[in-house]
Amino acid sequence: MLMYCEDPSSFCSLVLNITSATGNFIGNQLDLLYLGWVASLLYPAILVFIILPSLILVLLYISAFLLYIYMRRKKVYNVLNETLHRDPWASGRYLISLLWDAHGYIWHGYEVRGLENLPDEGPCLIIYYHGAIPIDIYYLVARTILTKGRLIHCVGDRFLEKVPGWKVILEAFHITPGTITSCVQTLSENNILSISPGGVREAQFSDHNYQLMWGNRTGFAKVAIESKSPVVPLFTENLREAFRTVSWPQRLWIALYEKLRFPIAPIYGGFPVKLRAHLGEPIYHREGETVEELAQRIRASLNSLIQRKQKLPGNILRALLARFYEPTKNE
Fold first, then answer.
1. Which of 71, 149, 251, 295 gives 218 a disulfide partner, CB atoms 3.0 to 4.6 angstroms apart?
2. DSSP class of 253
């Protein structure tokens, strides 16, 4: 039986309002009780299947990291006790390299193929594909310091200088914006230098098809010619599967980047995919070859490396499975 009250100020209307409010309150409480009941059922499962196993997994990774450092304790001791008048950052770089190399080894099964293509002495210019985060360069710099005792100088975007707290990293690892003159100077001092012609644009707007976004840039080829340095192309398998950028709405990200000259597109990932770096055969400037011709030859070499080593389009699940099984390119 329904009750209707025409006068909102009547006792009848008051009773109806109280009844409605009480019903709503009891309904909300029942919802909360139901959610609590569901949580009480799920909590033991979450504890047993997620939290406790995760704690064990974290402890195992910490143990693996500490043992990785322990295996290299003699080398660490020697580096820390060497005379530092030549390079005050040498010991710090070595310790940081151990950290990054351990991370790459444990989290990504990181490996390098073609490391012999980097000279043990003398200049060398590395030209590489730029991932959403150039984590492969971090790992390669670390591996080169640990295995060859050589530092790879890097050309980085100017916005890095504006990131709070990063100045010490840029200084210690010789990461600079780089002009043609400064790059030639770095190589003339018999250093290894890495450049990504695609830069931040490639990092933000390339995707799992691994397209190079160099535009008409040829400055890197001019650096190679003027410094008389060999060029080694670098590509890392599954780099875009480790970290990706949010592509939608890409037109907005591009417009903001063009206006601000700062990476705006959100980045997500950190997936423990297999990362395998490939250093190609050195490329030398041919007599009479123009800057544009050399730039095109370097681009073609890096593109060929991508086509031969990366199954396109990239796939996160396939890259994860590559930690345990190495399929052929045609599989």
1. 295
2. H
Given the residues 130, 153, 278, 285, select the one marked as catalytic: 130
Q: Which three-class secondary structure state does DSSP give residue 262? A: coil
Which range, of 28-32, 121-125, 170-174, 199-203, averages the lowest pLDDT? 28-32
pLDDT tens digits for range 79-111: 666 644 467 788 888 888 988 998 899 999 999
Among residues 318, 328, 316, the alpha carbon closest in space to that of 240 is found at 316
Going by C-beta distance under 8 Å and a sequence separation of 6 or more, which residues neighbour residue 196? 127, 128, 129, 130, 134, 155, 202
**Greater confidence, 247 or 101?**
101
Q: Which two tokens stand for residue 230?
A: 């060999």
HSE-up of residue 110 (Cα within 13 Å, Cβ side): 25
Cβ contact 258:148 at 8 Å = no
Q: Is residue 174 annotated as a catalytic residue, yes or no?
A: no
How far is the C-alpha of 196 from the C-alpha of 140, rounded, in Å? Answer: 14
Q: If 0-12 CB within 10 Å is exposed, 13-18 middle and 19+ buried, where does residue 283 land?
A: buried
Residue appearing with tokens 């799920």: 42
